Amino acid sequence: MIVVIMGVAGSGKTTIGKQLAARLGWGFSDADEFHSDANKEKMASGVALDDEDRRPWLQAMHEAIEARRRHGHDWVFACSALKHRYRQLLSGGNEDVVWVYLDGSEALLLERLARRAGHFFDPSLLRSQLQTLEIPREDEAIRVDIRPAPEQIVEAILKRLPRR
Could you count the other beta carbons within 10 Å of the beta carbon of residue 63? Predict the structure, then answer.
């Protein structure tokens, strides 16, 4: 099974993804690993990525997801996956890709981003991400509130993951 932890910057995708992967004994990959240096520089300078910037990044992630699926590896990915069409591209339409949407208020997200150090993402881009976000429907993703502690969020996800 592939699980993709999605949401805007500051929602805790990497933290939750790593903890979930550790609890399940699965591998983990973060979307930031697939960004080009040019994309990282653009975001660090406060410029939002457009669909043209995202295309090679999303394609690289799709290929990584497909490689894990083909080899039968259970894996957790963390990726913003802001738009429905991005999620479709990433999953390739495979229903064994499970989406988990980390949902939180703008105020909480800004607070978290203000505390985050050493990351290339400029917090001023949060507004752009929130405007771009197409919140997944209930039948598309497991929706989880980000206010509880990470351990509690992971527990909530584990309870709702499909059984195999």
Answer: 12
Give residues with Cβ within 8 angstroms of 98, minimum separation 6. 1, 2, 3, 4, 142, 161, 162
Phi, psi of 18 (to 5 degrees): -65, -45
**96: buried, middle or exposed (CB in 10 Å: 19+, 13-18, 0-12)?**
exposed
Residue 13 contacts residue 80 (beta carbons within 8 Å): yes
Contacts of 145 (CB under 8 A, 6+ apart): 103, 104, 153
pLDDT tens across 111-162, in order?
Answer: 877 776 554 455 567 778 888 899 999 999 999 999 999 999 999 999 999 9
CATH topology of domain 8-148: Rossmann fold (3.40.50)
Instruction: Kindly list the domain boundaries of the chain, sorted by start residue.
Output: 8-148
Please state, in angstroms and rounded to a whole number, the distance separating the CA atoms of residues 24 and 133: 28
Q: What is the pTM of this model?
A: 0.86
Q: How far apart are CA 29 and CA 6, in angstroms?
A: 12
